[in-house]
Every structure is written in structure tokens, then in C-alpha cells.
Recover the amino acids of this structure.
């Protein structure tokens, strides 16, 4: 093999290695997310957000929130977030961690629900980590929010879904 071909092969190999390293180091920054919002009287809105990592090997961070914002966001009587965290695939399971104020209910071995109702506040946010097992092909986060702003203003549950369709 002549020197020119060997140099190009080494350069090509180095470039491929660098590209692979770049993808592997930047992939965790890519996330799967979704958001939805609804207007409420007074120029404010309620936003529901779902987020989880886009790439994982053993664990995947997740976040879900329901937040009131706008011109003059006041504190709601209560504001709630309910997140459904699920592993998808054949023979799957999932373990879920969450922040201490939230409750976790396992609906099945592959689906958990985390719920937090915050009182006299404008946000209810939860977060933690999913540890999928078995033959999981992907994970999803469905975040649903509702609120009682005043005695006469209620926001029924609205949801945002982050995951494969």
C-alpha cells in the first residue's frame, strides 16, 4: 500500500472516530419533549410540559411540569401534575425515581404514575429517573396538568406526550 492511500485511510478512520465520539457525547443532550398550553381568564395560561432523555444505556432522566404564567400569574388554590412514565417493547419493566413530595403508583411493571398537587402555588413540577429493563425499545413521558385557580376558574386536565407515536 502506498503512503498516500495509507495516510487517507488513517485520516478517514480518525474522522469517523471523531464523528462517532461527537455523536456519543452530544446524544444525551438531545431530549424528547412536548408541551401544550391553555389560556385562562386574566391573560394568563397554564402550560403542561413533558421531557425525557433522547439517548440512554441504563437510565433516563425525566421531568414533567404544570405551570401558570402570563401577565400577572397569581398563585392557584392548587395546581397538579400527573406524569405517566412507560417502557415500551417486548417483556419490559421499569423502575422510577421521583422527587420526595410526589407520589408514585406502579400501574403495571412497565408503567408508573407520578403525581403531585401543589397548593397556593403557580407550578407543580416533578422529576426523576427511569431505569428500563427487559427488551425496552423506547420510553415515553405523558405529562398531564390541571388546576383550580379560584373558586370559579378551573382548568381541566390537559396532556402533553413525549415519546414515539
Amino acid at each position: 500500500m502506498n503512503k498516500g492511500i495509507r495516510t487517507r485511510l488513517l485520516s478517514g478512520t480518525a474522522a469517523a472516530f471523531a464523528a462517532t465520539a461527537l455523536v456519543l457525547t452530544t446524544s444525551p443532550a438531545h431530549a424528547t419533549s412536548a408541551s401544550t398550553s391553555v389560556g385562562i381568564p386574566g391573560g394568563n395560561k397554564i402550560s403542561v410540559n413533558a421531557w425525557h432523555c433522547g439517548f440512554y444505556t441504563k437510565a433516563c432522566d425525566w421531568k414533567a411540569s404544570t405551570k401558570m404564567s402570563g401577565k400577572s400569574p397569581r398563585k392557584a388554590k392548587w395546581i397538579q401534575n400527573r406524569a405517566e412514565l412507560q417502557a415500551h417493547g417486548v417483556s419490559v419493566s421499569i423502575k422510577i425515581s421521583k422527587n420526595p413530595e410526589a407520589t408514585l403508583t406502579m400501574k403495571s411493571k412497565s408503567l408508573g404514575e407520578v403525581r403531585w398537587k401543589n397548593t397556593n402555588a403557580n407550578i407543580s413540577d416533578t422529576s426523576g429517573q427511569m431505569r428500563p429493563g427487559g427488551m425496552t425499545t423506547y420510553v415515553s413521558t405523558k405529562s398531564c396538568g390541571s388546576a383550580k385557580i379560584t373558586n370559579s376558574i378551573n382548568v381541566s386536565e390537559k396532556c402533553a406526550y413525549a415519546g414515539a407515536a
Remarks:
- The mean pLDDT is 84.
